[in-house]
Every structure is written in structure tokens, then in C-alpha cells.
Write a structure and sequence with these properties.
The complex is a heterodimer of chains A (about 375) and B (about 325). Chain A has about 375 residues and is mainly alpha-helical. Helices cover about 75% and strands about 0% of the residues of chain A. A two-stranded antiparallel sheet of chain B has the order 1-2. The chains are: A mainly alpha (about 375), B mainly alpha (about 325).
Chain lengths: ~375, ~325
């Protein structure tokens, strides 16, 4: 196991290095270079131009620039963003990355949960009208043109019904007199959510040891108590109102992404479950006379989970792919929107920084899922 | 020896047995090998189509694709014979008899006009053609690369296998849309470039891995062994035995690539990053630029194109799903 882990990490570091190289080469191969924005000014003299190019380091050969950039990137210095001058790229990433991570993590987990539940039922009741309607509806949502769908959601829920804000991360009217920054509140929200999930997970494993009859009430009660304490803490913290505003802005993008992404998991679960249902142990369970529900939830769906977990890796990358689109539609100031805006104004350091961030996220997700898979499936050999 | 070479190029068939028997004295049917192959392929196709037909979901998808194909084919005809190019051209046409654009649907313009006075239906039909060409081009590139690389990697193993599989891992992990967005913003990307890029990314990426794993299971079957014992070379085995057996699976991945390609093109043109004449994504981009995006009283501006992208992508995806049941017997009902 440890050797496998080391090997995977080493492989991932190598892949990340390849990715960095690819990004650098790609951006460097663009026609012209980013100093053109300044050099096109006709008032500049030839000498000033040369000085500018020199100060930007553009007179050096590609190899030298690349190695220098790698050294700097290794130290965590990704340069200074042009469009956010004079803020360093790293600073911008640290400010905006949590928003993207939270938005997409929530949406991925939710869509996985929904997809798994629906897929399980679909495979169980194969061939009915329900299956056709759900499959076609699910595929329709899965392949929907995201900008168009996002607009429809905004139009319906924000514009017509007025339930949610039209976009953005916070409402400036509420935040005008706020004692703290938005990120201060947001970071505390993330920490709260993380603590709550860990506590719930620990409590879940604790309740596993109880008698089967006591498990459910104990689990639900425990979760209720944990959530209640968290809620009380926020109620008396004085910034609860601002946290609520951020949550309010989060609902619509998460809802949209969940609707768009759940079908992939649903179809995968259905296929995987159909294959599982043909196994001998399912027939044995039926022969024993176990109730359908037990067979479905205890015997079939747990073994179905394996390919679904592997696909989780790809799902994270897939959902990250939607980052730029989703964030643009909902004006969510995360990394996707930052990347797109930076690319449009040729803010090269920011573009590279955002790409590096996205690649890093994808690779980390890949690694985590690999490890999860190895832990979950004892049949995998760590070779 | 001469007998062997002859039987390679031509197979004599007796009508009842269907086995080559060169010394036979009875009436012989001499048929070129390609005709036999073609007939086998056709029979295979019919059997597979019967399985495919059992699934109404796949048929719905196929019907939608045919409908769109009809639309795409009808456009040049309408432009030639029915519509006045000055008014109905998808890019430069304008209807000057209407004072205000975008005009709502009318007899002359069944889906209204866009903010620049161009006919929406004409744009939609032209965009259909663009979507088909793009999707199929990308799918062909994907399938060619995916099949070749997958079959070679599975057959030879060793270094090429490791290299291409690592490459595929890298591509899978790269956020494609993000990279393409940056590329489209920095470079001048046209229609064919985009199709080839998508084809390359998909061909060297996930498709290769799946096709390779299928090729691995084919490689160890007994007919490959038989072909080798009969004296077939590497090229013969790969092209005559492995690749034809991979075809159903590659066809399946063609469908998924078409979906990806159409969706990607739409997203890139939605951001106005592509250098193309007219497409569905561009129609929404035009609407957005003119400021009618959330104005649902002008529904004809974004609904036709948005729906078209969604439906065509979904149709290809549904056909792919139904094909999956043909290719993968474990998913079938019986």
C-alpha cells in the first residue's frame, strides 16, 4: 500500500510537471507576446521599447525564461497579475480559489448523491415508462447547453420568481456596513462545514457499532445535535446574516450544476448495477428470501459503488471544466471567471496561474480518488 | 505454395458448406474476398440493428438526428430556390421591409429575425450543417487515432503502450474546455482547427484507453492465435482481425465525440472566441451582445439555438447509449 501510494504521488508530480510545461509552451506559442499591449503605444521611443522588453525579460531565449519561471513557480511566486496590478497572482488565487472549490465540491457531491440514488432505482425497475422518461430527461439535462440552461434558471428563479439573487457572490447593499471582509466570513463558513462533516463522519462510524435497531435514531439525533450547535454558533457570532447572504448566492449555481451533472452518475450507476444484479450472490440473496430493499441497498448497491467512485475522479475534472462557463453566467468571482477574463485581456501571468491551479486541482482529485479506490476495493493489487 | 497464395486472394465457396475447398470437383462459386467481407459486415449490421431496435431510446435519438440532418440538407436547397439570398443569408442577409429588428415570428420569418435583421430559421439550419460537419470531422479524427493507437498499443505492448497510456492519463486529467478557452482567446481558431483539436484530444485521451482495453481482450482470443498459426503477419492480424472487431466500439465512441464537439463549439462561440461564419453558439452570443439575453418576450432569439444544441447533443448521446447495449452484451435485457 505504501509503495503504491509513493508511486502514485511520484507519477502525479511528474504529470504535473508535464502539465506546467504544456501550459507554458502553449501560452508562449501565441502570436506576438504580452508586451505588445504596452509596446503598441506610438509615443514610445525605440529605446523605451527595448528597455520595456528587457525589464519584462522577453529578450531572453524561451528555455531560460521557462527555467526561471519554473524556479519561481516552485517557490510559489507566479508573477504579478496585469489586470489586478499590483497584486501577485498567488494572492488572487488564494482569494478566489476557495469560492470555486466550495461551489464545485458541493455541486459534485450533491449530483453524485442524487445520481446514485436515482440510478439505483432505475436499474431495479428496468424497462418501465419511468426508466425512459428519467433517462431521456436526464440525458437532456446532461447534454444541455450550459449557458442557455443557466440563463433559463436565472430567468425562472431570480428574474420571475425572485427567490434567489441574479448572480455575484455577495449583495453590496447588505455588505455596505459589514464589519468584516467577505472572505473572512466565507473562510469561517468553510471551516464550520469541514468540522461539521468530520464530526458527522465520526459519529456515523460510532453508530455503526450500535444495535441495528438503534443505529438510525442515534445517527439522526447526533447529526441534528451537531448541526444545531453549528447553527447556534453562527446565530450568536454577529456575522450570521452575512453568511446567510453568501449561502443565498450559492444556491442557484449549485442547483444548476447538480441538475446538469447528476445524469452522468445516474446512467453509470444504472449500468454498473445492472451488471451487479447478474452476479450469483444476488441470486443467493433472493433465494434466501431477503426483502427486495435489503438486496438492493445492502447487497447490490455497495458493489455498484466501485466504478462510480472511480468515475468521481473524472467527474471532478469534468465539473471543473464547466467552471468558466458557470461562473461567467452566475458572475461568481471564482477561478473560472478569473481565467476567462484574464485570457480575454491577455493577462498572461494570471492565465498561467489559473491554469496551474486548475491542473493542480484535477491532479489532486485524481490522486484522492485513486487512493479511495484502492482502499475500497480489496481486489486491487497495489502494483 | 501456389495454392496457398491463390486461396489468400480468392476463396472458392461451395454454395452449401460455405468452406473453402480447393480440390472440390462440384460447381464452384468464385467470389472475390471483399464481397464476402462486405456481406458478413452487412449481416453483422442487420443483427446489431435488431438489438438496437429493441431500445426505444436509441430510436428516438436516431429520429432526432435524421430530422436535423434533413434540416441541414434542406438549407442549400431553400437558399437556391425559395429564399432570396439578400434577405435570408445566415450571415449577411437583412430584411429591410421590417422596420424594427428583432422581429417576432411571422409568415416570412417562421422563427423571427435576430437583432441584426437576419432570419433565425436560416441561421438555425445553417448552424445545423456546421454542427454536423464539426461533429463528424472531430469524431473521424478521434476514431482513426483512437483505433490505431489502441490496437497498436494493445498488440505490441511495451514502450509504445506505456507512452500512449501515460499521454492519455495526462489528457484525461487536463481540463479540456479551460485549455481550449485559453487557446481560443490567444490564437485564431477556425472551424477545422477546432474539429481537429477536439479529435486529437479525444483520440489520444479517454477513447484510446477504452479501445485499448477492448483490443487487449480481442488479442487473446483463439481466432487471433489461428490467424498467426496460419502464417498471418502482424499487419494482417491488426488490420484484418483486431480493428474490424473494434469497429462497433469505435462507432460508439464516435457518437460521444460528436456530442462533445458540438457542445464545445457552442461554448467557445458563446464566448465569441471562434473565427467562424455562423453557428448555434454564435447566435446566442449575438443575442447576448445585443442585450436581449434575459428578455423572454424575445424568446425566438435564444430558444431555437439553445434547444437545438441540447437536442442534437442529447440525440447523439442517446444513440451512443443504445449502441452501448449492442456492444456490451452484459447490459442487455436477456
Amino acid at each position: 500500500m505504501r509503495r503504491y501510494l509513493f508511486k502514485r504521488i511520484a507519477q502525479n508530480i511528474f504529470t504535473f510537471f508535464l502539465f506546467l510545461t504544456l501550459v507554458y509552451v502553449l501560452v508562449d506559442a501565441q502570436p506576438g507576446d504580452f508586451s505588445n499591449i504596452y509596446l503598441n503605444d506610438p509615443r514610445l521611443t525605440a529605446r523605451q521599447r527595448a528597455t520595456l522588453r528587457e525589464s519584462l525579460g522577453l529578450d531572453k531565449p524561451v528555455m531560460e525564461r521557462y527555467i526561471q519561471w519554473l524556479q519561481n513557480a516552485g517557490r510559489g511566486d507566479l508573477g504579478i497579475s496585469f489586470s489586478n496590478y499590483p497584486r501577485p497572482v498567488m494572492d488572487v488565487i488564494i482569494e478566489r480559489a476557495p469560492r470555486t472549490i466550495i461551489l464545485f465540491l458541493t455541486a459534485t457531491i450533491l449530483s453524485y448523491y442524487v445520481g446514485f440514488m436515482v440510478g439505483k432505482i432505475l436499474a431495479w425497475r428496468r424497462g418501465g415508462l419511468l426508466e425512459y422518461v428519467t433517462t431521456i430527461g436526464g440525458v437532456g439535462l446532461y447534454t444541455v447547453f450550459l449557458p442557455w440552461f443557466g440563463l433559463l434558471m436565472i430567468w425562472l428563479f431570480s428574474f420571475t420568481l425572485g427567490w434567489f439573487p441574479i448572480g455575484k457572490f455577495i449583495d453590496p447593499v447588505i455588505w455596505r456596513r459589514a464589519p468584516v471582509e467577505a472572505n473572512y466570513v466565507f473562510h469561517r463558513m468553510i471551516i464550520t462545514a469541514a468540522i461539521a462533516s468530520i464530526l458527522i463522519l465520526v459519529w456515523y462510524f460510532f453508530t455503526r457499532r450500535l444495535n441495528p435497531g438503534q443505529r438510525r435514531p442515534a445517527l439522526l439525533g447526533g447529526v441534528g445535535v451537531i448541526l444545531g450547535i453549528m447553527l447556534l454558533f453562527w446565530l450568536f457570532s454577529g456575522i450570521g446574516r452575512y453568511a446567510l447572504d453568501i449561502l443565498h448566492h450559492l444556491v442557484l449555481p449549485v442547483l444548476t450544476l447538480t441538475l446538469v451533472n447528476f445524469a452522468g452518475t445516474m446512467l453509470l450507476t444504472r449500468n454498473s448495477m445492472l451488471e451487479t444484479l447478474r452476479e450469483d450472490y444476488i441470486m443467493a440473496a433472493r433465494a434466501k428470501g431477503l426483502p427486495d430493499r435489503t438486496i438492493r441497498d445492502k447487497h447490490a448497491s455497495r458493489n455498484t459503488l466501485l466504478p462510480v467512485v472511480t468515475a468521481f475522479v473524472l467527474a471532478v475534472v469534468f465539473v471543473l471544466n464547466d467552471a468558466a462557463t458557470t461562473e461567467t453566467i452566475f458572475s461568481w468571482p471564482g477561478m473560472g471567471l478569473t481565467l476567462l477574463e484574464a485570457a480575454l485581456v491577455q493577462d498572461i501571468p494570471m492565465v498561467i496561474g489559473a491554469l496551474v491551479f486548475t491542473g493542480f486541482m484535477a491532479l489532486t482529485a485524481h490522486l484522492v480518488a485513486d487512493i479511495m479506490y484502492a482502499v475500497l476495493d480489496p481486489r486491487i493489487r497495489y502494483s | 505454395m501456389a495454392e496457398v497464395t491463390r486461396s489468400k486472394s480468392r476463396v472458392r465457396l461451395r454454395p452449401d458448406s460455405g468452406l473453402p475447398s480447393p480440390e472440390d470437383q462440384g460447381p464452384l462459386i468464385e467470389q472475390p474476398l471483399w464481397r464476402i467481407r462486405l456481406r458478413l459486415l452487412w449481416r453483422n449490421f442487420i443483427t446489431n440493428f435488431r438489438i438496437f431496435r429493441e431500445n426505444p431510446i436509441g430510436l428516438i435519438g436516431l429520429a432526432i438526428i435524421l430530422l436535423f440532418a434533413l434540416m441541414a440538407l434542406l438549407h442549400p436547397y431553400l437558399m437556391e430556390n425559395v429564399w432570396d439570398p439578400n434577405i435570408y443569408d445566415p450571415v449577411i442577409g437583412i430584411d429591410q421591409s421590417i422596420p424594427f429588428h428583432p422581429a417576432p415570428p411571422s409568415a416570412a420569418h417562421p422563427l423571427g429575425t435576430d437583432p441584426l435583421g437576419r432570419d433565425v430559421l436560416s441561421q438555425l439550419m445553417y448552424g445545423t450543417r456546421a454542427a454536423f460537419v464539426l461533429g463528424i470531422l472531430a469524431a473521424l479524427v478521434t476514431v482513426t487515432i483512437g483505433t490505431a493507437v489502441g490496437a497498436l498499443a494493445a498488440y505490441y505492448g511495451g514502450f509504445p503502450d506505456t507512452f500512449f497510456m501515460r499521454l492519455a492519463d495526462l489528457i484525461i486529467m487536463t481540463p479540456t474546455i479551460t485549455i481550449l478557452l485559453v487557446m481560443a482567446a490567444l490564437f485564431d481558431i477556425g472551424f477545422v482547427h477546432l474539429a481537429v483539436i477536439i479529435g486529437l484530444l479525444s483520440g489520444f485521451g479517454g477513447t484510446t484507453i477504452i479501445i485499448k482495453s477492448q483490443a487487449l481482450t480481442i488479442k487473446v482470443r483463439s481466432y487471433i492465435e489461428a490467424a498467426r498459426v496460419a502464417g498471418g503477419g502482424d499487419a494482417h492480424i491488426i488490420f484484418r482481425h483486431i480493428i474490424p472487431n473494434l469497429l462497433p466500439l469505435t462507432f460508439l465512441y464516435m457518437m460521444f465525440t460528436v456530442t462533445t464537439a458540438i457542445a464545445l463549439e457552442a461554448i467557445l462561440s458563446f464566448f465569441g472566441l471562434l473565427n467562424i461564419r455562423m453557428s448555434w453558439g454564435l447566435m446566442i452570443f449575438t443575442t447576448q451582445r445585443a442585450g436581449y439575453l434575459l428578455d423572454m418576450s424575445k424568446w425566438w432569439l435564444i430558444f431555437p439555438s439553445g434547444l437545438a444544441i441540447t437536442t442534437l447533443c442529447a440525440a447523439f448521446y442517446l444513440v451512443g447509449r443504445a449502441l452501448d447495449e449492442v456492444v456490451n452484451p452484459r447490459l442487455r435485457k436477456r
